[in-house]
Amino acid sequence: MKLILKLTLIILIFSVQSAYADLHQEQDVQEFITEMVSKHGFEKDQLEVLFSKAKVAQSILDAISRPAEAMPWHKYRRIFLRNDRINLGRKFIEENRELLDKAEVEFGIPPHIITAIIGVETRYGNNTGGYKVMDSLVTLGFRYPKRASFFKSELVQFLLLAREQGFDPLTLTGSYAGAMGIPQFISSSYRHYAVDFDGDDTIDIWNNPADAIGSVGNYFKMHGWKKGQDVAHKASTSGNAFESILNSSLEPDKTLLELSNLGVTINPDLSGEMKAKLLKFEQKNGNDYWVALENFYVITRYNHSALYAMAVYQLAMEIIQAEY
Questions:
Q1: Active-site positions?
Q2: How far apart are CA 223 and CA 251, in angstroms?
Q3: 208 and 199 in contact (C-beta within 8 Å)?
Q4: Per residue in 79-104, pLDDT tens?
Q5: Is 141 exposed, middle or buried, given 0-12, 13-18 or 19+ CB atoms closer than 10 A?
Q6: How far apart are CA 245 and CA 260, in angstroms?
Q7: CB 313 within 8 A of CB 116
């Protein structure tokens, strides 16, 4: 019985390894390679070699199946709203004050918002991910049907990026989803929004805080950040009419006046015509309600999650408090 079990495991292991080794010969991979050759001028032989060296990783599939954003808010916030991350944020601002001030002038993004993004993403550059980006994108593009289209698109962008910048695509590392560097830019974001912020003629978001800070600032500016405007306000509710507008959409879809008429109240005296979104956050005992303004929506363009954007906003507020 033990011998049969061992033989079965050996056969399974070899069959899995064979399937992974032959990935570049699969029809959809060959179609992808053909498209890269015809549309973008890549050499077929070079792509064949590249894909033969890429690995499908079960750990990547496991990781994407349990995103932190699936947690309730009271658990999710504990990951990021910790004293060590807050104190490191204050230190990051102290060490990069000139660059952050420059980014605020050029892009209109407050230093504590840029800092909080980098703090949530990589603990201020201390954890940029250990997965090979090529493996991540190949795994998710060809073994994760739910979002295969998106990750194949990012694989296209990644290969273009590597060619443009002279990177070896087999050595770049990042998150399980293929996000890279201090600010965790996916390949399309790198190509569209990353900037050389210190003028050294190189865009380095892996090792250079200047380029990371400038790239985050440029990203938010290009996604419509409104300089000088608030992000969100905690709300109180009355009655139950407001429940009809709670949904999964993140885009501001009501005016503050309309929210007020539905029993939603916030303290600041803001224009009733300002667009906003009512959001619910699950606590251990009951729910918190927040009125998210347009800048909150801009944060969700970085990660399409209300939990993520609220963690960034609250971390930013805590960093401000820690500075005084």
A1: 121
A2: 13
A3: no
A4: 999 999 999 999 999 999 999 999 99
A5: buried
A6: 12
A7: yes
- Structure-token pair, residue 302: 């970085």
CB 128 within 8 A of CB 169: no
User: 178 and 130 in contact (C-beta within 8 Å)?
Assistant: no
Based on the number of CB atoms within 10 Å of its own CB, is 181 exposed (0-12), middle (13-18) or buried (19 or more)? buried
**CA dihedral (145, 151, 153, 158) positive or negative:** negative
* 288 beta partners: 281
Query: What pLDDT shows up at residue 323?
Result: 74
Per residue in 191-209, pLDDT (tens digit) is: 999 999 999 999 999 999 9
Nearest to 50 by CA among 59, 58, 42, 61: 42
Closest C-alpha among 173, 131, 178, 171 to residue 156: 178
**Other CB atoms closer than 10 Å to residue 257's CB: what's the count?**
13
Tokens read off for 263: 């029993």
Q: How far is residue 203's CA from residue 226's CA, in Å, rounded to a whole number?
A: 26
User: Which are the contacts of 60, defined by CB distance < 8 A and separation ≥ 6?
Assistant: 131, 135, 136, 139, 140, 176
56-227+309-324 belongs to which homologous superfamily?
Bacterial muramidase (1.10.8.350)
Q: Is the pLDDT of residue 13 over 50?
A: no
Which residues on adjacent β-strands are paired with residue 132?
Answer: 173
- Determine how many CB atoms are found less than 10 A away from the CB of residue 234: 11
Domain ranges of the chain: 1-53, 56-227+309-324, 232-292
Backbone angles phi, psi at 180, to 5 degrees: -125, 150
Using the predicted structure, report yes or no on whether residue 250 has a pLDDT greater than 50: yes
Q: What is the pLDDT of residue 278?
A: 98
Secondary element (H or E) of residue 37: helix 27-40
Interatomic CA distance for residues 152 and 272, integer angstroms: 43
Which tens digits make up the pLDDT trace of 279-299?
999 999 999 999 999 999 999
